[in-house]
Amino acid sequence: AQTVTQSQPEMSVQEAETVTLSCTYDTSESDYYLFWYKQPPSRQMILVIRQEAYKQQNATENRFSVNFQKAAKSFSLKISDSQLGDAAMYFCAYRSFRGGSEKLVFGKGTKLTVNP
Amino acid sequence: SQTIHQWPATLVQPVGSPLSLECTVEGTSNPNLYWYRQAAGRGLQLLFYSVGIGQISSEVPQNLSASRPQDRQFILSSKKLLLSDSGFYLCASEGTGRDQDGYTFGSGTRLTVV
């Protein structure tokens, strides 16, 4: 079974600075999807960024980018120019490529604090 | 794009009382639907998922059950709540772009069993 590990329960960053959140996963599959979700204090889960494992190019979405290292099974999230609104829980998630009812497997999350 | 309606937003129920949480989806047809529970300070635990009307799969044995009476309706129930059922419950949908888009989540229900 796939597992997702986020080794940083909490992180903090100064406003306008850059922070990187770590995520590693374990799988025997070669094709899969990886996601980062943001959960602000409102508890609404918001998709931040996704990466297809067969794509070598790292995904980017505005200030958010990932460093996807397939061989190392690592999927870190970099937030540039951090803003106060970035403060939230961040969850890394894995999904099989096989389709059907494949569930998302989540890590336990990293709480990000942004200091003004 | 999909929209998920989940209610109620908060609920306080006594031990031994029944439970019914409802989730409806707009903007897609034949979605895969999921119920997750999030305990305080922890990640998301998958409780149930459904690939179609009347089709329910349970991930963990527990005091809860789920039903899918219509294509875009997913209900989480319990006949008698336990203190350990307290938590934050999230409904999620995976629509027609299911290979790529991850999930769309509802706004959640905070359940406190007293």
Question: Any key phrases for this structure?
Answer:
heterodimer; A: about 120 residues; mainly beta; 4-stranded antiparallel β-sheet; 12 strands; globular; B: about 110 residues; 7-stranded mixed β-sheet; about 55% strand
Question: How does this structure look, described?
Answer:
The complex is a heterodimer of chains A (116) and B (114). Chain A is mostly beta strands. Helix content of chain A is 0%, strand content 53%. Chain A has no helices and 12 strands. Chain A has strands spanning 3-5, 10-14, 19-21, 24-26, 32-39, 46-52, 60-61, 64-69, 74-79, 88-96, 104-106, 110-115. In chain A, the strands form 3 sheets. In chain A, strands 2, 5, 6, 10, 11 and 12 form a 6-stranded mixed beta sheet that branches. The termini of chain A are far apart. With 114 residues, chain B is mainly beta. In chain B, strands 2, 4, 5, 6, 9, 10 and 11 form a 7-stranded mixed beta sheet that branches. A 4-stranded antiparallel beta sheet of chain B has the order 1-3-8-7, with no helix packed on it. In chain B, strand 7 and strand 8 (73-78) form a beta hairpin. The model of chain B has no long low-confidence stretch (mean pLDDT 89). The chains are: A mainly beta (116), B mainly beta (114). At the A-B interface, strand 5, strand 6 and strand 10 of A face strand 5 and strand 9 of B.
